[in-house]
Amino acid sequence: MDSKQTDRRAGRYLMQTVPSGEGYRAFMPEPLPPSPKLEIDDDLQVLLSQADRVLGRLDGSIETLPHPDLFVMMYVRKEAVLSSQIEGTQSSLQDVLAAEAEVLSPDRPKDVVEVVNYVAAMNHGLARLEALPVSVRLIREIHAELLANVRGSHLTPGEVRTSQNWIGPAGCTLSAAAFVPPPPHEIGPCLSNLEKFLHTDSKLPLLLKVGLVHAQFETIHPFLDGNGRVGRLLITFLLCEREVLQKPVLYLSYYFKKHRQEYYDCLQSVRDNGTWEEWLKFFLRGVIEVSKQASETARRILSLREAHRQIITENFSRSAANGHRLLDHLYTQPIITVKNAQDATGASYKPANDLVNRMTELGILYEITGHARNRKFKYEDYVSLFDDG
Ligand SMILES: Nc1ncnc2c1ncn2[C@@H]1O[C@H](COP(=O)(O)OP(=O)(O)OP(=O)(O)O)[C@@H](O)[C@H]1O
Which positions does UniProt annotate for ATP binding (predicted)? Predict the structure, then answer.
């Protein structure tokens, strides 16, 4: 493709002026799919088949887990932490798990609320997919969940922006921005074109479609805040909606974070040079990398659970059933109090306390507060499986 064909392929810059007379260039994306159409060369083809294969394998390996939903919940939390870290919050997976053990704790850090909101947005979106296709309406609902009652809530949760925004180093002016997305009156038409593309039954392989949609969404930048997070959630929702994945287990936040500059450069080059294929290669490499990692995590969970079930069977003659019950509970809530253990097993305080103490002696749980009262216990081996990133 020659450069004349590509430099307007993704859209064009429109000169705009603010009332003070200052000029800037806002970008107007062309509707998808790209024209001239995607050139699927050997490299792209190989990446596409590999991504399809590893994603299929990931989907299958989740099915082999005894409690796939437990894995999914941990995964969603990890994604929430990573995704919120890209945005600049500082909570760790440990903070989130600890806060969940004490849901009503008044000293729950604000950053954790943001992460918990991300989990809520994910769950809301997945539940809504039963009744509503991935659409502008769903995108707005997810945005409303994501920014409800947190920093940024003044930024109109669930509403597309009515003012011009821009991307650039902190404090930069509109005219010095790295990128200025479409003017506010163009957001409606841009989003409805995107929705049309989503619902058009094209022959485009799904992963390419998802990659195109993510990049286009980031270019439209329809909200004042949270565009990165909503755009990453869209990837997961589309894969679940089209049943490539039975469970929401593909998250690219870690990959985008690790290759942040390349990620931004690829998006910018699509706009400036129409290089959709290069972006898609970057995207597919991410799908391959994170699918492999997630399959490996699933495999390790399976063997960890087997090993710990065995230890419990050998060491708990009478209370093995409660031990197994608590063990399974730990896969959803890996930091617990004795009260949590009571709730999970149905045992009264004394046997639940004995159970937790015995699991601590056996090295399955670790007490993390160092206090004699209000103790918290962590299922360290499990949590550390999610430590990457
Ligand atoms: N040239 C660019 N430089 C930086 N980010 C860009 C660029 N182009 C698009 N983006 C997108 O903008 C997103 C950030 O937008 P916004 O701050 O609204 O989202 P967020 O969810 O609050 O942040 P984050 O994505 O950092 O978590 C990035 O994740 C990226 O997808």
Answer: 87, 221, 225-232, 263-264
| β-pair type (335-336, 377-378) | antiparallel
Task: Tell me how far the alpha carbon of residue 202 lies from the centroid of ligand 1, in angstroms.
Answer: 28
Q: Is 221 a catalytic residue?
A: yes
**Residue in 368, 76, 109 with CA at minimum distance from that of residue 247:** 76
Residue 219 has which token pair?
Answer: 């270019």
List the structure tokens of 261.
């500059």
Q: For ligand 1, which residues put their CB under 6 angstroms from it?
A: 83, 86-87, 167, 178-179, 218, 225-229, 231, 264, 267-268
Q: Where are the domains of the chain?
A: 3-296, 316-386
Atom of ligand 1 nearest to the CA of 152: 22
CA gap 13, 29 in Å, rounded:
9
Q: pLDDT (tens digit, 9 = 90+) per residue, 286-341?
A: 999 999 999 998 899 889 999 999 999 999 877 899 999 999 999 888 889 999 99
β-bridge mates for residue 377, sequence order: 336, 367
Tell me what pLDDT residue 100 has.
61
Which candidate in 124, 154, 199, 221 is catalytic? 221
Tell me which of 3.30.460.10, 1.10.260.40, 1.10.10.10, 1.10.3720.10 is the CATH number of domain 316-386: 1.10.10.10
